[in-house]
Amino acid sequence: MLREDNHRPAQPADASERSHLNPFVVATGDAAPRDQRDLMERPFFSLAKTPRTKPILYKAADVEVQVLAMPEHGMATIWDADVLIWAASQIVAAENDGLRTSRFFRFTPYHLLRAIGRPTGNRQYVLLKAALARLQSTVIATTIRNGPHWRRRQFSWINEWEEMTTRTGRVEGMEFVLPEWFYNSVVDRSLVLTIDPAYFRLTGGIERWLYRVARKHAGSQPDGWAFEVSHLHRKSGSLARVSDFALDLRRIAARQRLPGYCIETIWEDGRELLCMRPEKLPTVPVDKLVRTIGTSGARSIGTSGANRAPISIEESNIDSSNSSSLTRTHARRGAGVARSVADVLRDMLAGDYDSRGGQP
What we know:
Blueprint: E1 24-25, E2 34-36, E3 56-60, E4 63-68, H1 81-96, E5 104-107, H2 109-115, H3 122-137, E6 139-142, E7 153-156, E8 160-165, E9 171-177, H4 180-187, E10 192-194, H5 205-217, E11 225-228, H6 229-236, H7 242-255, E12 261-268, E13 271-278, H8 328-333, H9 341-350
Parallel strand pairs: 1-5
Antiparallel strand pairs: 2-10, 3-4, 4-6, 5-9, 6-7, 8-9, 11-13, 12-13
């Protein structure tokens, strides 16, 4: 299932990767939150609060994601991913200020916890250490962003970490080392999107994952985006049955708690679709904090990619069963959709939107 591409001789137990890296010292932890694009839509994390050991095996077109968990720790969760969001935020903020960064982080847990909206009591420090253990023990293998030649990269979310305490047990600081795959994708800021700080207040795993999907795909486009529910289920890696997953989506749509987005479910030809579009204003501005790099412009979903060959359709909608043309009658029933979902989906099938509608 998983394979090592590079067979390297075992290093001595005292050999630390940190000894070859200059530390990136995070002084305050204050930075607008940013998320890495690939992590926002594919199944890299467990969405459950109970420990998960069953692997995630996901494949779409030429993209593969495999995630393995250690039984003693369980798989890294979408709440543990807050640590990676914080790290990405610090890297981008520092480089925007012309500062040198590194995969080797040195920081105080207090600043990290404050930045991701967590309390700073003793219990939260214990939970943070458990999160770091899961991030280090979870093994990811993926073919995403590996250049023109197909190959699989294998890594953990954190290569190593250490806690620095006084003799009385008071935590004075922490260190960890990020994998190159993640660090390089953050330094390339075309692969990073700002997110609403209210994201950290979302309590449900599917709710959190759905916000990240909406932020990446719908972005700030008035027309938004749409997915077939069964396809979303596969992309989430959820262990829930499709019917239970769909029920969770309907409940989330009824509550409308995703910061900055309105979502609704509609039916067409016996298939349930989830439509998402920008609706409510975000709690803070999120669109002008990182300079745009590459072609990540907020183009209209109705025209973007219209001249592309069918082979270039992104994996989110590459299977024609993932989305469909809705009738205008059904589209008019959808509450608050800017224009008919039929037109939106027809455009998506005619030529894929490049999934970078949200401004970075």
